[in-house]
Design goal:
The complex is a heterodimer of chains A (about 450) and B (about 170). Chain A is globular. Chain A is an all-alpha fold and about 450 residues long. Chain A has 17 helices and no strands. Chain B has about 170 residues and is α+β, with helices and mostly antiparallel strands. The radius of gyration of chain B is 28 Å and the shape is elongated. The relative contact order of chain B is 0.12. The chains are: A mainly alpha (about 450), B alpha+beta (about 170).
Chain lengths: ~450, ~170
């Protein structure tokens, strides 16, 4: 039992620290570890209990602490001041620390849902849910795509006189949203069917594209827009009551659970659906729900690999672990649950010191420099893992990822990279579509 | 929300001072917004980069030859790889059925260096059976599909189009 505790805590510490580095994803770090294990030829000699608990620790640490850069490094540029997310509002008011802590409280609630919800009921309910829902995955996925695209609203064109100019302005951002979805979907088809990335690292096939679509645009904007973080207070106003926590956890649990269970749906899409379903308009509820949703999505998805009788792999962490060890006993399941609980406790305790530390570093070094270092790190990581072709894919993806940011559309449209190919594949038309566009 | 005048200056028209949000041109007086010029440059650069880059990537992808992969050299890091393998069929294909319909088809192949299971699901499996395209034991086949590699050391290749299974009767004796 001691190796499980030690490796889960070590994993949580590493995952938590890496989570505070903007742009770095835990799956990138796990990929480096997987490659190192394979290159050293020791992949098979590490005890499965150690491997499982270390991976679980890293994922919990990341999903709990990822809150810190997502709140503290998300200052909007001045023109977006009226369309900012609640986390950004907290930051701009000088309450970034409080925003991070509220989101982390949501993460802790999410961990309770995973350990006591999926942990106790999962083996009974999830195989049944899979049997019922599996034949319907494809149309559910298309419905989610339709909702995602149709629920976008025009950022411009709501003001001024009616007429063609206003119509064009309104459709400008909506059109860019659709264009982003289609272009990232097309990129997804290329990477799924004819990836230019070396076959030797194809388990990281989508990583350069994700870095380009989601990470680099934010860092570039931080660099060029010269945003400054307002002076932050390091106190907690204690207005997070049980009702807010429960409402947020319910919404986040719905969204994160949906995203963890259904293929190709991410935590962001799950959060969007849950937000519309519950329609609570309180910033604190939103922050709690984001924390819960993120944790349930990452950690719950990882745990599905271990649920006895389910046979389901969701999320990059589970796919990578599956290449090293294939869980198949109840023992694995309980080890994973224990590791998640240990790691969750440690990670939550780390939120406050790491948030304060990050604020100190940001105020001392500045957004621009931190973003430059993070940009250099992500380019080096992509280049190191996937080579020159990976960097080229990342550049193309950056071009697509910048479109919604610069033209005022939802960044979620970039998820077309997995939603479109997977929805087509699940409907049985993926190869046909790939054939039409000359990729088969 | 009050982040100071300097923070929200860009959300208002510099000419008529009305709120214009993220718009580049004021919808009331057509004046340019006070957004930094670099943002407009970035807009153009991103659009060009996205279109041209995607075009070149597409050309690179469609002209790429898929090399034949040696089965013994498949590692877990090749998971999801689009790959081509060639070898002789070791057993007659197994046709799995669910409620009387073809659910999946599976058969092992060996290329001399190792063994791999080829699997086709759903419509592809049904099409292979209906069109009598299934190989038999001893046939030499070339198959293109996605690798599924797990830690148990039994890699699978998922066939996703019937035309990606080529049976070479002439090579059967080999």
């Amino acid at each position: 039992m001691i190796p499980v505790v030690i490796s889960s805590i070590t994993g949580a510490l590493i995952g938590s620290v890496f989570a505070c580095i903007p742009g770095l994803h835990v799956y990138n770090v796990m990929a480096l570890a997987v490659i190192a294990l394979h290159l050293c030829g020791v992949g098979g000699s590490v005890s499965p209990d150690t491997l499982v608990s270390f991976a679980a620790g890293m994922i919990v640490g990341y999903s709990m602490l990822n809150t810190v850069p997502s709140v503290l490094l998300a200052a909007p540029d001045e023109s977006a001041i009226f369309t900012v997310l609640p986390g950004q509002k907290y930051l701009m008011r000088g309450h970034g620390y409080e925003g991070a802590m509220i989101t982390a409280a949501g993460g802790l609630a999410g961990l309770f849902l995973v350990v006591f919800g999926i942990g106790l009921l999962g083996p009974k309910l999830l195989p049944l849910a899979k049997a019922v829902l599996h034949p319907h995955y494809h149309w559910i996925l298309w419905a989610v795509i339709a909702f995602m695209l149709m629920s976008e609203w025009p950022m411009e064109g709501r003001l001024g006189q009616a007429g063609l100019a206003k119509f064009r302005a309104a459709w400008g951002s909506l059109g860019v949203g659709l264009l982003t979805f289609l272009m990232s979907g097309f990129l997804g088809f290329i990477l799924f069917y004819r990836s230019p990335i070396s076959i030797d690292v194809s388990f990281q096939n989508l990583m350069p594209a994700f870095a380009g679509l989601f990470t680099i645009p934010s860092l570039l904007l931080n660099i060029v827009s010269n945003v400054k973080m307002p002076k932050q207070r390091r106190t907690f106003s204690k207005d997070l009551d049980a009702a807010v926590l429960l409402k947020g956890a319910f919404a986040g649990g719905l969204g994160g659970g949906f995203a963890a269970f259904f293929p190709a749906i991410t935590g962001g899409v799950g959060g969007l659906l849950a937000g519309h379903a519950t329609a609570w308009r309180d910033d604190r509820i939103f922050l709690v729900s984001q924390g819960t949703s993120k944790l349930v999505y990452y950690v719950g998805g990882f745990l599905l690999l271990f649920v006895p009788g389910l046979n389901m792999t969701r999320g990059g962490g589970a796919w990578m672990l599956r290449g090293l060890y294939q869980p198949h006993t109840n023992h694995d399941y309980y080890i994973a649950l224990a590791a998640l609980a240990f790691a969750g406790a440690i990670s939550f305790l780390l939120v406050s010191p790491l948030a304060r530390g990050s604020m100190a570093i940001i105020s001392k070094v500045g957004y621009r420099r931190i973003s430059c270092v993070a940009l250099a790190a992500i380019v080096a990581l992509v280049g190191g893992l996937t080579g020159l072709m990976g960097v080229l894919v990342m550049l193309v993806a950056t071009g697509i990822g910048l479109l919604p940011v610069l033209y005022g559309a939802r960044r979620m449209n970039c998820l077309g990279i997995i939603l479109l190919p997977v929805a087509c594949n699940m409907s049985g038309i993926g190869p046909t579509v790939a054939g039409w566009i000359g990729l088969l | 929300m009050n982040a100071g005048a300097s923070q929200n200056q860009g959300a208002f028209c510099p000419s008529c001072e009305r709120f214009i949000g993220p718009a580049d041109v004021c919808p009331y007086c057509d004046a340019d917004s006070a957004r930094p010029p670099i943002m407009r440059t970035l807009r153009c650069v991103s659009l060009v980069l996205a279109f041209v880059g995607l075009g070149f990537l597409y050309l690179a992808a469609t002209t790429k030859e898929l090399p034949t992969q040696k089965i013994s050299e498949i590692t877990p890091m090749m998971n999801f790889a689009r790959s081509q393998v060639a070898g002789s069929v070791q057993k007659d294909p197994y046709v799995g059925e669910k409620k009387g319909l073809v659910d999946y088809i599976s058969f092992p192949i060996n290329d001399g260096s190792g063994e791999l299971r080829v699997v086709a699901y759903g419509a592809v499996a049904k099409s292979l059976k209906d069109r009598k395209l299934l190989p038999v034991k001893g046939d030499f086949v070339e198959v293109t599909g996605d690798l599924d590699v797990t830690a148990d050391g039994n890699p699978k290749l998922r066939l996703d189009a019937t035309e990606k299974l080529r049976i070479r009767k002439d090579a059967r004796a080999q």
